Amino acid sequence: MDRNTTIGFLLLGLLLIGYMVYNQRGQKEYQAAQKARRDSIARVSQQKADAVRAKTAALDTAVQQRYDSLQRSSQLGVFAAAGTGATQTLTVENALVQITFSSLGGRPEKVILKQYKAYDGSPLDLMNSHYDQLGLLFYTAANQPVRTNNLQFRLMENTLGADSTRTIAYRLEAGDAAHYLEYRYVLHPGQYMLDFNVKMVGLENVLRPTDKTLSLIWNGQANQQEPDAKVEKNNTQIYYRLQNGEHDYFSLIRTTDKELTEPVQWVSFKQHFFNTSLVADKSFDNLDIKGKLAGDSSAYIAQADFRMQIPYTPAAEFEFPMHIYYGPNDYYILKSYHRDLEEVIPLGYGLYTFAKYINKWLLLPVFLFLGKIFGSWGITIIFLTIVIRLLISPLTYKSYLSQAKMKVLKPELDALKEKYKDDQQKFGMEQMKLFRSTGVSPLGGCLPMVLQIPIFFSLYMLFQSTIEVRQQSFLWVKDLSIYDAVLHLPFRIPLYGDHVSLLTLLMTLTSLFMAFYNKNMTGMGGAGQDNPALKYMPYIMPVFFLGFFNSMAAALTLYYLISNLITIAIQWVIQTYIIDEDKIHRQIQENKKKGPQKSKWMQRLEQAQQQKQTLTQQRKK
């Protein structure tokens, strides 16, 4: 192959390669053009489809809105316009409470107590859930039910008076401005009580003419405010006051439903240290209550539904004034409202009703007075213990004096026991004869202890209920209103719990020490010591109290620990420096020489019998 032929083939190859490259580029441009054309067609189709769907959706929405409007009109009648609209909120406050109102239902939807904190340090939301509702349920002239909680109210007034009184008014119009339902709220400075007035204007022909009452529905939820939910559930109760002045309550842990047909002045949804109460200036016709406690995994404690009837008379204007209390279970704050709301604080009830009066008239005033002096509630409890021990010191002295007399008589009692060991009946008679001849009462040491029982139960009720000790620390105790758990157990011990209270342990140890000390000091023998139940009772009771007090408020166990320490000190002083056993022995011997001593009660009984015999003889004559 010559050179020209070779060059020719090379040129042909270059031309072929160039053609192939050019053809491939054109193919790509063609495909890109085709793709652009297809995408353009798809976009146009999508836009047409979207337009069709938008028109369809708009038509469906219009149809649905028209349907909803017709349905609202048929159900709500003149209130149909309030069935729609945006919800707006308004927050008002004073130094104690912050209340947020909602236009939906024209009601409070959130309440914060500014002076208190929840157990985790967060703001104390006394009310802050979708479950909390308050409003009316009534029927229109067309026999359709209307519940105001689902309707939009219009804010008509939000004014602040010269004395810092805040007035809020929400209005639900019935077709026009001349016919309406109005909720008016007034929050006074420095008050937990919120005035709540229901007013109807021009609705006498709008509501069902046969109705004589309106239903006021209140749904409340108790949120967890304290560290131990179980303790808080045990203290969640419903209180109410009847128009006749009687008070009553029930705990949700035992009862869930109750219906009252008598007129009711107020009802309170009470937690351990806080409550929400609805108070009528006159009274509600009746009250239906349904409550329930939350499960263990729930974030709240309990829920309660209240339905009460407001007496209603059709008129051009109708008003029903009420009040809502959002606040603490503080005895004197509740008492200041002069409506017996302080009865929600369980200072004593049932078998322990007597404790209420001891607390109201003695222990609570002294406790609060000392608290103002010392500032620390732990130190206050210590000084309250000292005051109580001083008040009962005469009884304590008589008790120790009686024990000393029994100790002096022990040798003679042992001799009688040995002499009549085979005749217990004879021993008992000779023992009582010895007691009468010496002027010693075997119950002399028990009576002073029995008289202290009312104080025991009064303090039990006081420290379990008083809000002053809530979240107050002392030494290692973080909160005096609940047990001082120094150790949490991974398991639960029956009749004890799943934690260890150090105050309870110390109280138990001092109680056992007192039991051993008293046994050694009195050295009392006799028939009682042959009974194991009586012999070991002083040691069994402290062990029993170990489980009982382990879950009690630290304030209560602190009191009894200090009381035990003071008792030990007083007992040692009295028995070491005041009581003279030799003198007691001489007095007993002198009494024996005088013969059997009669008690004043026996003397009065004999005098009564002699008088009866004299009257009988006179009648026979």
From TrEMBL:
Residues 377-575 form the Membrane insertase YidC/Oxa/ALB C-terminal domain. Pfam families: 60KD_IMP, YidC_periplas. It is a multi-pass membrane protein. Residues 604-621 have a biased composition (Low complexity). It comes from the Bacteria. InterPro entries: Membr_insert_YidC, Membr_insert_YidC_N, YidC/ALB3/OXA1/COX18, YidC/Oxa/ALB_C, YidC_ALB_C, YidC_periplasmic_sf. The chain crosses the membrane at residues 6-22, 361-392, 442-463, 500-517, 537-562. It is found in: Cell inner membrane; Cell membrane. Residues 590-621 are annotated as: Disordered. Residues 90-358 form the Membrane insertase YidC N-terminal domain. Keywords: Cell membrane, Chaperone, Membrane, Protein transport, Transmembrane, Transmembrane helix, Transport. Required for the insertion and/or proper folding and/or complex formation of integral membrane proteins into the membrane. Involved in integration of membrane proteins that insert both dependently and independently of the Sec translocase complex, as well as at least some lipoproteins. Aids folding of multispanning membrane proteins. Belongs to the OXA1/ALB3/YidC family. Type 1 subfamily. Interacts with the Sec translocase complex via SecD. Specifically interacts with transmembrane segments of nascent integral membrane proteins during membrane integration. This is Membrane protein insertase YidC.
